[in-house]
Amino acid sequence: MIVHSLERSGEEPTENHELENTNILSEVKGMSENNPYNSLRQISGMWEKRLNGLLFQSIDNNPLIQITKLGIEANSRYIETLKRNRELMANYLNLPTKMDVANAVKQTIQAEEKIDILEEQIWNLQESFALATEEQNKMLGEIMEFTKLVHSEWQKVTQELAKFSEMKNEFEEMKKLLQEGKKEPVLTAK
Q: End of a domain among 65, 92, 119?
């Protein structure tokens, strides 16, 4: 397998690689006698080291990095052009773009939040109006009670005033009678 991976990477199998393969096989045979899980772990560790070595060799390859960089730049320009063309076509066909949909969703969420705030304010106002109406009704009840009390007191006062007027009239009559009674009586003969 290692020979196949070397052939894919473009390297020629050498005596070192064959020596490493025989070392790996001998180590695997020795490990399997002890514990199969340990041997599996050691084999996977060796494979990992080999694959990491191959990856680092391919990463250190400067021409490969340059070619990859050029490919990425060309691809990014192509993607940007596609994005712009997609936006132009969407505008021309009057279709919403991803940004339009995202903005619409954002505005919808903001509108829902504002509606929730307004609902809460309306509920608070309704509670305030209910309390104010209750207070007004209570105050009107007190005013009605006070008005009834004033009216009954007024009637009592008018009745007492009428009595005082009658008393005054009686006093006036008594005063007249007394003044008439103070006149000396004239004796008349019979």
A: 92
Based on the domain organization, do 130 and 168 belong to the same domain? Answer: yes
Q: Determine, yes or no, domain membership for 98.
A: no
pLDDT of amino acid 8: 46
Query: What total of structural domains would you count in the chain?
Result: 2
The count of C-alpha atoms lying within 13 angstroms of the C-alpha of 190, restricted to the half-sphere facing its C-beta, is 0
pLDDT given at position 186: 56
Tokens linked to 71 = 């490919």
Name the pTM for this structure: 0.37
- Check residue 189 and give left, alpha or beta (phi > 0: left; psi -120 to 50: alpha): beta
Q: Which residue has the tokens 């192509």?
A: 78
**Residue 7 counted as domain residue:** yes
Parent domain of 126:
104-180
pLDDT in tens, 122-151: 999 999 999 999 999 999 999 999 999 999
Low-confidence ranges of the chain (pLDDT < 50): 1-9, 13, 32
Q: Which amino acid is at 114?
A: K
